[in-house]
Amino acid sequence: MFSSLLLDEPLLDALESLGFTEMTEVQESAIPKALEGKDLIVNAKTGSGKTLAFVLPLLQQILDNPQSVTQALILAPTRELCRQINKQCTLLAQYTDIRTAVIIGGEDPKYQLKALEKYPDVIIATPGRLLEHVKRNIIELEAINILVLDEADRMLAMGFSDQVIEVASRCNEECQTVLYSASFNQKKFKLLTDAILYEAEEIIVDDPRNNNLNITQLKIAADNSTHKLKLCDYILKNVDDDFKFSKAIVFANKRATVNSISGWLQSKEIPSAVIHSDISQDIRNQLLRKFRNNEINIIVATDVASRGLDITDLDLIINFDVPRNGEDYMHRIGRTGRMFDTGMAITLVDSQEWNQMISIENFLDVKCIERKIKTLTGKYAGPENRKSSGKAYGVKRKKKVTKKKVKKKIKSRIRDKKNIGKRRKPSEKESAVK
Ligand code: ADP
Ligand code: MG
């Protein structure tokens, strides 16, 4: 129960207005420790309420020690996630005087600068844009007492580690630093833990490889991209009771694939919106708003939309292609089956991708159910001969017979090795004569 946390009345009122009474597991474990001011590394599965687990103690700490400068900083890997965190922050702080500001790229800086003029207590930012402001002396970090890194592993994977470390080093010496993730990996985090954490406590609520049991995971074998497009078209027509959905996201690895899926769906009169890094931030925000408000029910996206987004009634994820690694897979499918909801994830797998999919399943210790769609059964039905791991036996490649390259001989003359023909240094005597 939140009431056991001795929070200030305005925060308890906000929780009540949001309809939250019971804490989730990660909240129960992390909030008391955070309130003690400890550095933390927290890992809990997607959709388990991590945002509130870091926002609530941070707000209480600000209420305990109000100051006229920014005290808390939350870093997140994507702009959309920053906006979403800000929303939850604002809702929880609605009965307090605590102000927040979002600092992200791709938006008119005018509004962001205006928000900064009002001395926000909390800044929520992507690392790159924040540092730009810091270097121009628009934002000072010296007074930051609480630093939160959400989806910390993703920030590392996106190459933000130097920036994150620089930000952390500019914060107050006493700053409490907390890392949140659903795919914590000790090795990958070592850089951060060594550089910016102090005697951090690890709170591993869910093993990073633990699966979200609320999600039914299927895979459908596909012949090629055209077959995959047909499968998408069938599922997204939303006529088959087995795959009924309210809202769906189709993920693909590349922007070009995202565009062609959306184009194909359009030609089949299935409206969808596209989100990837070439789409302007304003449009991305607008589309996401429409998706949240049920004006759009299908989004086709790259992994920019795979982390952290929490969207009500999103109950179907299609992986048009097999993600590059197990972590990306887990985060993509984790957009569904959040908190108490259930969801379905379908991965379309062609022969080239089969083994990659098995690696992901083995990594996450999950077995995706193989499904077929009767009217669209392709020629490929997974490998005929499988190893005990489920992988296809590799096709033995014939050794290419290549002609032995004959190395061109480079002339090496004795003359070059010795000093023959080179100018000799003039002797002292000779120099003296000059
Ligand atoms: P995560 O960051 O772990 O993926 P989120 O913080 O986005 O998960 O939370 C998932 C959903 O659960 C959000 O819609 C959030 O409002 C809701 N939620 C968080 N805490 C609680 C709670 N204690 N009771 C009910 N719902 C909650
Ligand atoms: Mg989250």
Describe the overall structure.
The protein is an alpha/beta fold and 434 residues long. The protein folds into two domains: 2-204, Rossmann fold (3-Layer(aba) Sandwich), CATH 3.40.50; 215-376, P-loop containing nucleotide triphosphate hydrolases (Rossmann fold, 3-Layer(aba) Sandwich). The protein is 37% helix and 15% strand. It contains 16 helices and 14 strands. It has helices spanning 9-18, 25-35, 50-64, 79-92, 109-117, 127-135, 152-157, 161-170, 186-196, 225-236, 255-267, 281-292, 326-333, 354-364, 414-417, 428-433, and strands at 40-43, 72-75, 100-103, 122-125, 146-149, 176-181, 201-204, 215-221, 247-251, 273-275, 298-301, 314-319, 343-349, 369-371. The strands form two sheets. A seven-stranded parallel β-sheet has the order 3-4-2-5-6-1-7. Helix 13 crosses helix 14. The longest helix has 15 residues, at 50-64. The radius of gyration is 28 Å and the shape is globular. The mean pLDDT is 90. Residues 20, 22-24, 27, 44, 46-52, 308, 310, 338-339 line the site of adenosine-5'-diphosphate.
